[in-house]
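ugh ok so i messed up the first submission bc i forgot one of the chains. this is the corrected input, ALL of the components this time, i swear. 264 residues overall. if the numbers dont match what u have on ur side tell me asap before i send this to the collaborators (the ones from the other lab, u know who)
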Amino acid sequence: MAATNCVFNKSRRDLNRMNILQIPRTLALTDIAYEHRAIHHPYLQALASGDLPNPQAALEDFAIQYQGYTSWFPNYLTCVMSKLQSERHRGYFAENLDEEKGHLDAETVQQLEQLGIAEAWVQGIPHPVLFRRFRNALGIDAHSKPLCHAVIDWRQKFRSMLQQCSASEAIGAMGLGTESIVKHIYRYITTAIQEHTDLCRRDYVFFELHSEVDDEHAELMMRVADDLADEAPGNLEQIHRGMIKALDLRATFWDAMYARAGEA
Ligand SMILES: [Fe+2]
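and heres the new structure output, hopefully the right one now
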């Protein structure tokens, strides 16, 4: 990455940290999101604790099914981006999409290395490919296991919701209801992997990358949400509604995965 870009990213990050404290309405919504059952679902807790009939089989099932959702993630970003009027807001999404392709700036690389994560594990590698690395490390043959109805239903409903809703609802769903909460969910998954498999860190770096250093996506979306909330009186309610819809869809998926894990 060019030096000028690195300088830009660093100053932008500093700005984010300063501004995030100035958007109490949006922060209050993330507090509500954090209390939703999608975040600390019994399925996630059981994956982490191993309190399931076959913890390893359950984790393998998660790897197969969740790939069905996460492989569509760039499409969700593109869909929400297309609803935004502001060039600055669309610019945030363009950066987000660039990071989804694996392009990391110097500050992120430094943060990763402080955590013991080598740049070579992640630099230039699209996030869906990082997820496939995790799935392959578990020894899963991609073609051997079909996607279940629950994940097909989840990703289709989420995409059609994003396509049909307002910009405010879309930001609520994608920013507050998704980007700002996945770090909490992925900590359960990381614990499950560490406790119940012998995978090395490189193999499951997808989760640590999103849990520990990828908060910037959420921060930028919260800023977009706050700007939209200023534009019209009803927008904050729409942001809230979109956030809850995304969380409800995720919780429904976890319900189905929990039932599958119980049958393993
Ligand atoms: Fe990602």
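quick check: The CA atoms of residues 207 and 225 lie 25 Å apart. that seems consistent at least. DSSP finds 15 helices and no strands in the chain.
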